[in-house]
Amino acid sequence: MDGSLNMVGYGLAAIGPGVGIGLIFAAYISGVARQPEARGTLQGIAILGFALAEALAIIGIGLAFAL
């Protein structure tokens, strides 16, 4: 087998943030559908959650290239 297993490991590790982002926005859509007047508050929380979940993926790819 030729190549680096770091990228295979990153591909598997990217599943977690992908699922997390999906759950964050599913909860956001559900919350806005139930209470449209809370859209502004929920949007800020959803963006913060998205940024934190995406940071895990960015750290993971950084480590994959570094190692």
Automatic annotation (TrEMBL):
It is found in: Cell membrane; Membrane. Belongs to the ATPase C chain family. It is a multi-pass membrane protein. Keywords: ATP synthesis, Cell membrane, CF(0), Hydrogen ion transport, Ion transport, Lipid-binding, Membrane, Transmembrane, Transmembrane helix, Transport. The record marks 54 as: Reversibly protonated during proton transport. This is ATP synthase subunit c. F(1)F(0) ATP synthase produces ATP from ADP in the presence of a proton or sodium gradient. F-type ATPases consist of two structural domains, F(1) containing the extramembraneous catalytic core and F(0) containing the membrane proton channel, linked together by a central stalk and a peripheral stalk. During catalysis, ATP synthesis in the catalytic domain of F(1) is coupled via a rotary mechanism of the central stalk subunits to proton translocation. Key component of the F(0) channel; it plays a direct role in translocation across the membrane. A homomeric c-ring of between 10-14 subunits forms the central stalk rotor element with the F(1) delta and epsilon subunits. The keyword Membrane applies. GO terms for molecular function: lipid binding; proton-transporting ATP synthase activity, rotational mechanism. One of its GO terms (cellular component) is proton-transporting ATP synthase complex. The chain crosses the membrane at residues 12-33, 45-66. The keyword Transport applies. Residues 10-66 form the V-ATPase proteolipid subunit C-like domain. The gene is atpE.
